[in-house]
Amino acid sequence: QLTNAQQVLVEDRAYFKIERLDRFVEQHQLFVIRMKDNIELHQKKSLKRLSSTSSSVQADFTCQLGTKQYRSTKRHRVVIFRDANGRDIRVVTNLFHASAETIADMYQQRWTVEVFFRWVKQYLNVPTLFGTTENAVYN
Question: Domains in the chain: how many in total?
């Protein structure tokens, strides 16, 4: 498990699990994770923010996540923003000191890394990457 309380985990929805989010909050692990589309939001409370006409952020609130059968024990911050293709992206986080725009930007920067590695695999004929160091990526 790649966790470090001094760093912010920025992950795609494949890593989204409600119990994992609650555990991250308890462990003081900062995160920004894209939510699965079917996750229900309960007891939403909007956060006060300065609105900007140029912002892609659609909503910023706290809530509990899940169904009656399994719901998060903690309240989480949800930021909904529009990507470059006009799709709404929902991310959950425990970053309360950052603006909603910063959180949206963190997730979008993560996506540029994904696009880069997809390009490397497709055009450089590298099906899998074996190294995790900066030098391994350059090689």
Answer: 1
